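Tokens for chain A. Residues wanted.
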């Protein structure tokens, strides 16, 4: 399983909005750090201590009070096994996804061990499975009868194990990540531990884990 952060946005507007209920914008102490390398200018959000304290206070008060976390967005590329992706589909609020299509791309090339999460799998079984699936895929490529070709394709799709890896691009809010890591802490699928480790690499992880 592999997770790659693509972009994190929304800190500035979110922490302005956080102070809307009490009109306390003048107490915000977050800033922006401007960096320039050649012709490239980048801005980095620096969370102020007073804003951090207020955010943590609102988080402890409950999800209905820390609505500003819904406005911080993370885009990530995740390549994970189907059994984990099925569990991730549980989360809909504050989560959007676009998936690579197994249906459209599976038959383009023979499968290898790298197409599967196989940290704990028996390699003899893995090779047997690969030989069986790849033999069917080769038969599909040479089959001329459209109906029988469709049957072979269906048999390959049904034979794929849950360890088959699929790439998806996700967008999470910090509020959604906060909910996910709380519910999946200590889960027996070790992919959730990897997910939580990744979430701790995001800017200001205390907004997710505190």
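Reply:
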């Amino acid at each position: 399983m592999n997770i790659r952060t693509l972009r994190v946005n929304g800190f500035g507007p979110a922490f302005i909005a956080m102070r809307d209920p009490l009109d306390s914008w003048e107490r915000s102490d977050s800033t922006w750090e401007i960096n320039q390398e050649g012709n490239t200018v980048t801005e980095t959000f620096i969370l102020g201590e007073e804003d951090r304290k207020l955010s943590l206070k609102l988080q402890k008060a409950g999800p209905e009070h820390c609505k500003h976390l819904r406005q911080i967005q993370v885009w990530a590329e995740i390549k994970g096994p189907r059994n984990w992706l099925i569990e991730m589909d549980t989360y809909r609020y504050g989560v959007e996804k676009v998936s690579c299509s197994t249906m459209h791309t599976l038959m383009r090339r023979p499968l290898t061990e790298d197409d599967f999460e196989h940290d704990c799998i028996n390699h003899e079984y893995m090779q047997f499975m690969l030989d069986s699936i790849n033999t069917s895929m080769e038969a599909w490529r040479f089959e001329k009868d459209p109906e029988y070709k469709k049957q072979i394709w269906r048999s390959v799709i049904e034979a794929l194990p849950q360890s088959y890896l699929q790439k998806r691009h996700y967008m999470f809010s910090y509020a959604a990540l906060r909910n996910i890591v709380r519910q999946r802490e200590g889960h027996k699928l070790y992919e959730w531990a990897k997910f939580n480790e990744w979430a701790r690499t995001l800017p200001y992880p205390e907004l997710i884990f505190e």
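The radius of gyration is 23 Å. Residues 123-142 form the longest helix (20 residues).
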